[in-house]
Amino acid sequence: MKNAILLHGTGSNPNSFWFPIITHFLRNRGYETWIPFLPKCEDPDLKIQLPFILERGKFSEETVIIAHSAGCPLTLALLEEIDVKIEKAILVAGFIKPLKAFPRAKTILKKTYNFATIQKHCAEFFIINSTDDPWGCDDKQGKLIFDNLGGTLIIKNGHGHMGSREFNQPYEKFPLVEKLMEL
Question: What is the pTM of this model?
Fold first, then answer.
């Protein structure tokens, strides 16, 4: 059965920003969806969040992962650990290098990623970043992920973090993610 796992970022939850609409969209298309409230989400820690997802998540050739912000490095670490090739990963406002604007986020990052293994465990990558992300999860971070993974890089102009309370970016709808799910 096709399933989708949605991973929110720091300080967010399953009801933040565009997650409810995307969850509804996916369920209407027959996806079993799981959008967990990630533990320690105010100070994301890979040592806590990765085992949480590995123990509870279902992964198959029909799995799609949609991640936002700190959910993106978590997704990459996850793809290093699973033993199946999932269908697709959509990484929104992701990062793989420490953020000057948010130094606490370094605990969600690995020191190094095995990009060859990550590529083997995901058939298709979509990387979406904005030119003006206030946290630094910008087009440069997106390009760095793309340079290491390939896939499709989508740079949005003026879309900020695509969901942020601190910077008043409600971003309640995300038609681009819906479009990517229909590909």
Answer: 0.97
